[in-house]
């Protein structure tokens, strides 16, 4: 199987049953992506595929050959923290840190969804051209990422600091 | 997880041909339910035919109807401008389901064919007539807060988990199928079965049949429509109860026609035909809406932990109708 992860191609043999999450962690040693529930309930395994966020635990790796996969390692490729990572530190957006890579990947893709005008369950006017990433929108859009430490206020503050002014571009 | 072969189909005919190679083959969409069920050994296919490369187009026809390729993602359908403007109940239902990540993965066809989230269905230490026909049902006397109040049987009280399907039921959606015997179309409300004595048979699909497209007939007055979901947390949870509704009102404030479907109450998306009949021709007021809700829930039966759903359903349904009619108490 051939995969493109964080801009690098990898040819490797893997059991067809391998999830994208296990492929990343066990075959490519990209252990930044975390295994929480392994059943799509927690979001700790969130990665980007062609810029779109998905749960790697529910993804059979074989389906994602030839796609551009980005993990948390790919958000900070040269060892320099992504601005959102710095904001998480600034705002105490974590305690144990286990959900953090998933939160970060999810938030980065979520902001692109806002920019292109994708509505959410709390968007008042579905037909509106523009969505503003306000408090309610942020919490609804990040609801697929759980934090058992309850660092939600810090997470929301960090995302708001960096992306709070984001709205759908004209 | 049982070992399987994997093949990717380029079109529906190829998918059918590939799936015909094994009676235990399964079509694979985004995998958000099937992969989980395979891991739990509830599903044990020996071949997966990946159909995510099939038709994912969303076509708006001149008459205002929609044709949705079954491989379209949930996100793509909810994002489509024609859905957001013309069928808000459908966009809202999809956006009320799952999480952003899962909606990006899940296909429309897979959403329709997802299986119940009854915990006893997943737990192989429990008895479940859906997983192991004839073994019994541990939900009936178990923790059944999430379970059915309409159309259940002594064999199964599971609910269908989809939000999208509730809106599609209200919209009279038509499911286009392709199978070994050719093509056919089934109304969504006739696709899923009630459990009766065979809860393991969930749809009228024949062996090897594939959902290729969903058609949503034109309904100009669906612009006045809503989806409301009641659940145990504010987001990312399955429905205790949900309602999709659209109202067509006359100039003098009577209900010309109504579309109502309910989720979280039955083994299938529940088209509320009694409520619709009760509303027709009535003044659009609280009294009519409560009467319609009562009529729909008249035969509802609670199981012990879910009896609250009967009141909840009536009040929520009446409230959604009042909101649509812009009646403020």
What does this structure look like?
The complex is a heterodimer of chains A (170) and B (329). With 170 residues, chain A is α+β, with helices and mostly antiparallel strands. Chain A has two domains: 2-75, Beta-grasp domain (Ubiquitin-like (UB roll), Roll); 83-163, DNA polymerase, domain 1 (Orthogonal Bundle). Helix content of chain A is 32%, strand content 11%. Chain A contains six helices and five strands. In chain A, strand 1 (2-5) and strand 2 (8-11) form a beta hairpin. Chain A is globular, with a radius of gyration of 16 Å. By secondary structure, chain B is α+β, with helices and mostly antiparallel strands. Helix content of chain B is 29%, strand content 19%. Chain B has 13 helices and twelve strands. The A-B interface holds A 15-17, 19, 38-40, 43, 46, 52-55, 58-60, 62-63, 106, 109-110, 113, 117-121, 123, 126-127, 139-141, 143-145 and B 1, 3-6, 28, 30-32, 35-36, 39, 48, 50, 52, 75, 78-79, 81, 84-85, 88, 91-92, 95-96, 98-102, 104-105, 234-236.
